Amino acid sequence: MSVLRPNLFRGSVAIVTGGGSGIGRAITYELLTLGCKVVIASRNAERLEKAAKELGEVGDVTSIPCNIRKEEEVQALISQALEKYGKLDFLVNNGGGQFMSPVESMSLKGWNAVVETNLTGTFLMCREAYNQWFKANGGSIVNIVADMWRGFPMMAHTGAARHAVVNLTQSLAIEWAEDGVRVNSVAPGMVESSTAAANYGKEANVFDVVKEYLPTKRTGVPDEVSSVVCFLLSPGASFISGTTIKVDCGSSLYTRLMWNIDNHDKLPAYQWIPKPKL
Ligand SMILES: CCCCCCCCC/C=C/C(=O)SCCNC(=O)CCNC(=O)[C@H](O)C(C)(C)COP(=O)(O)OP(=O)(O)OC[C@H]1O[C@@H](n2cnc3c(N)ncnc32)[C@H](O)[C@@H]1OP(=O)(O)O
Ligand SMILES: NC(=O)C1=CN([C@@H]2O[C@H](COP(=O)(O)OP(=O)(O)OC[C@H]3O[C@@H](n4cnc5c(N)ncnc54)[C@H](OP(=O)(O)O)[C@@H]3O)[C@@H](O)[C@H]2O)C=CC1
């Protein structure tokens, strides 16, 4: 079960981008079990609809296709969500992604695609949710970023975009404080989901490869990101805004240069959310 109390979010409404897969799906699942109504939004309408059907067994969920890179689609998403549920309490900007490439062979189109997805998409979602609802009613936003704290070789586009989102989070926390809006980010380390593994595991499963380099000697699970997102949305975090919480169990701090961590299983996963039926 969720570590948060039952019915904590009864009567609340959330939008979760990328809520039909991976980490976003886990966040949606946990919100639903806590009584929240959830709109999930992403590009692939068919996959989104299928996820909504499955998640519909847990609670009240609606799928609305949306490409967060497109301003008019973002505007329509927020207004359709408001039409459907009459209010908005939470926004989780989880939708995003990138491809692996060294900078020297990155095309401008590829760079722009990743920056538009992860930075501009987050900006558009925040601005529209604020203008259409949060400005008059308050609310809480969580942006999902990444472990880009020491640069992100092979993913420099996403590293730059995600770090920009951390700064955007800080600016918005101040600009919107007087309207009762809290804005925070969560930075996951290596979190294994079936979609992420499919994206990055073409030759070998990168999540298997990286295990030995992590202090936990295991990768994270989506449930471990979801619990932190739900906490940040909750009244328990009412004095937290403008911050970014790393959910990586120290992997962003660890190099083997000064300290070796032997293989162990002393930091097991907290996992309770059923995996999606594939
Ligand atoms: C052990 C090691 C640790 C490994 C470390 C592993 C990290 C794991 C931690 C992170 C995990 C996650 O983020 S998990 C989430 C992963 N999920 C995703 O990334 C899915 C979302 N990603 C995407 O949709 C795409 O990557 C993204 C580029 C953002 C959007 O793609 P679109 O096709 O919609 O974009 P378009 O506007 O059409 O532009 C596409 C252009 O992008 C470029 N492009 C797109 N894919 C490309 C590719 N594979 N290789 C080169 N270039 C590419 C080309 O220039 C394309 O143009 P043309 O040449 O003209 O086609
Ligand atoms: N797994 C990991 O180890 C880590 C993941 N992250 C980040 O966490 C988030 C979730 O990733 P994860 O669950 O692992 O992987 P997924 O691939 O399952 O999640 C990415 C989600 O984003 C949606 N999405 C991508 N582009 C757009 C767009 N332009 N508009 C709307 N939705 C979009 C996708 O749906 P659709 O294709 O239908 O649009 C998908 O649901 C991503 O931002 C990811 O980069 C960060 C650090 C580590």
Automatic annotation (TrEMBL):
Compartments it resides in: Peroxisome
Molecular-function GO term, any one: trans-2-enoyl-CoA reductase (NADPH) activity
Alphabetized CDD domains for the sequence: TER_DECR_SDR_a
InterPro entries (alphabetical): Peroxisomal_t2-enoyl-CoA_red, SDR_fam
GO cellular component, one term: peroxisome
Any single Pfam family the record assigns to this protein: adh_short_C2
Keyword line: Fatty acid biosynthesis, Fatty acid metabolism, Lipid biosynthesis, Lipid metabolism, NADP, Oxidoreductase, Peroxisome, Phosphoprotein
Pathway(s) served: Lipid metabolism
Function: Participates in chain elongation of fatty acids. Catalyzes the reduction of trans-2-enoyl-CoAs of varying chain lengths from 6:1 to 16:1, having maximum activity with 10:1 CoA. Has no 2,4-dienoyl-CoA reductase activity.
PANTHER family, A to Z: PEROXISOMAL TRANS-2-ENOYL-COA REDUCTASE
Subunit structure: Interacts with PEX5, probably required to target it into peroxisomes.
Protein name: Peroxisomal trans-2-enoyl-CoA reductase
Organism: Allacma fusca
Taxon lineage: Eukaryota, Metazoa, Ecdysozoa, Arthropoda, Hexapoda
